Amino acid sequence: MAISPYRSNSSALSFTCLSDNEILSQIYPTHFHVNEKLDVESLFIMAEKILNRSTLVVDNFLQQEQGTQATIEHLEEKTPKASFSPPLCLLKKISFEMQCKEPGYLIAHATTLSILNLLSRYSWDAKAVLTLAAFALDYGEFCLLVKIQSSEELAKSVGTLKRVPVLLKGVTMQKNQQAFIDLNKVVKTTLKLIKCIFELEILSNFDFDTIDVSELATVLGRIKLDVYWAITTIVASTTQLSSCLFFDEDKKQELNPFADKLNVILTELEKQIVICKEQIAETQDYRKLVKLFQTSMEITEVLHELIDPTNTMQPLIDGSTKTQVEIDVLKGKSVFLFISDLEISNDDISMLQKIFDKAGKEEEEQYKIVWIPFVEQLREGLDKEFETKRSTMPWYVVRYYLPKASCRFIKKQWNFKVKPLLVVLNPQGKMECENAILIFSIYGVEAFPFTSAKVKTMETDFSWLWSPIINANSEIENWIKEKKYIFLYGGQDNEWIQKFPEGVNVLVDHDLIKQKGISIQWVSVSESEGNKVDLECFWTNIESLFISKAQGKTQIDVVAREIQKLLSYKNEKEWAMLTKGSSVVLVSSGKVILKVVEEFEQWKIKLNEKDFELAFKDYHDEVFKDEQHICHHIEIPFKPGKIPETLECSHCHRIMDTYISYKCCHNDGAAEAVH
């Protein structure tokens, strides 16, 4: 691109002739791998000191007629490292690039590219600080001569060569007064901008993921442009200083467009830095919480950090006495943290009341409930809504303004999304259950206190499977106690649903089955006529237990595998399950199991050496190998808790593909997402 000088009278036109993308396309090739070492902080400290005092000298000189003098005593300045050695030769080279240039944006642009090429192996903040320091060297020298040339003969002689005495003459100074006012303003703005750039570079060196500090990623993406404009403005400022010294009106640089551009950038950068610092502070607090929950041995310590890290209030309201109390009342207790928004359903209140009543019957009042209202956005009427809800609660309640880091912890570590959670912590602050609501929905209050040991006991007796079935037919409870073999079957194919019990009935009437005293029953779990099993409850239990079993697990156990198999058949044409008493023997395709039943003659000989369930399973596995496999789908409704990111197929053991779907039933409830 040909470069032509634009004078001040055409600066408005020239200042808009390059877009951001055009600028970036030209400055990208100037930057190479950073391998030059530089104490950027010490260099910036020195440049800042020089420019703070230089602009003060000029301000005081311009104001001396009014008899006012500013001081620099209020400034807090750092000290460079004792080992700092300034790169003087490099600063001289940069200064040389900027001297005696024609005014105009495109000339400043071309000069900036030359400087960027010179500094190609320095970081972007170092490029800006080096250019600033080179300008500070020249401007500082000029201001020093202004200050002492009348009292020092050496300064006077040097000043004469620099044309300072002529510049300071009354008429000449009046003529250049506005130019120096503009120059001083733009120097101060440039200094602020580069200070922001340097501060951002320091912030970027913190060990944070860009996901955690998203604003930092955004602003660092623009830092090259900001550095470009800082350097271009310094070049223009150098041109302005030269024009004043040479008294050349035609070569004066219009600085206002540069100042306006920098002010826009500076305003945005300052806002972004504030946001970055807030995000970094939040991330630090979040990491502290994560570490504390891993290492702490006291429930009150983790709750203090979660609920009231600043320790500025009595954070709990005792629902039974309606008084404010300290978190220390929970010392030595197991705590049920109920986390929800202010829209709490009657079912949730009923559940909490049952748990509260159960906890009250325990010795030494070992278990306590705490409601943590999860509110991220304040809105009108929140206080009234909160007071209405908490006034009916006999358990402990937390004020609804949780710290941001705590909200983040609850969402990321405990997987809170929309629906309520009931997190169980032991007296040491360790998690016993990530979401007791799932467990309660399956077993009810009988699973209290929802510890892993208690839940494991209830899982292995398969009560999660049988409760809705027993409710439909009380006789089944006796079959379970008598350890009878039971076929559960269901699916979408009504013809198969009718055919399956016919096949089982033939098996039951077989002489060998009768001879060996093998008792077999069957129960339909389908939408067929006459079925009394609550299908919604049945499948909800299966889904809830599946999610519960997935909490924090990388591998699934035997129970979880059978649950997964059952879920994979939920929407298939046919499925069946064989149990002995309450224990599941196998879950499989209804077609395969019916084939095993109908081909009893081919495997009955195995009953001479094996129990019925083992013989049945052996033949099933042979048949299953020969069957054409179908795709298996598992739909998991959106529920509180951690849904597995990957899932191994329970049949072929490959990793299953993952999809997201959405369903709307056209009611007032939220749509459910399923994986």
Automatic annotation (TrEMBL):
Ranges of residues in domain Sieve element occlusion C-terminal: 473-666
Designated gene of the protein: LOC115981979
InterPro entries hit by this protein: SEO_C, SEO_N, SEOA
Coiled-coil intervals: none
Limits of the Sieve element occlusion N-terminal domain: 19-295
Recorded superkingdom: Eukaryota
Protein's name in the database: Uncharacterized protein
A single BP term in Gene Ontology: phloem development
